[in-house]
Amino acid sequence: MDTSTRAPETRVYLRRCEKEGRSKYVNYEIPKSFVVTEDNAVILTQLSPAALAGRMKNIKHD
């Protein structure tokens, strides 16, 4: 997350989500990326953005 949280706006957004209870941690390792869901929840994960993109390719969409 070092590179994804460089922008001040991103840090402010993530802090606000945390305060509002919209942040969900996959585990307690240092997160490398985050995903904003359709219901505006923020999921923080230790997976790299490249790993998440690869997994998304394997999901069948409706």
List keywords for this structure.
three-stranded mixed sheet, 62 residues, alpha+beta, 34% helix
By secondary-structure content and strand pairing, the structural class works out as alpha+beta
Average of the residue pLDDT scores: 88
Strand-and-helix sequence, N→C?
A: HEEEH
The first-to-last residue Cα distance is: 31 Å
Notes on the protein architecture:
The structure is a single chain. The protein has 62 residues and is an alpha+beta fold. It has one domain. 34% of the residues lie in helices and 18% in strands. The chain has a three-stranded mixed β-sheet. The N and C termini lie far apart (31 Å).
Write the layout of secondary structure elements.
Layout lengths: L7 H12 L3 E3 L7 E4 L5 E4 L3 H9 L5
Parallel strand pairs: 1-3
Antiparallel strand pairs: 2-3
Would you summarize the structure shown here?
It is built from two helices and three strands; from the N terminus they run αβββα. It has 62 residues and is of the alpha+beta class.
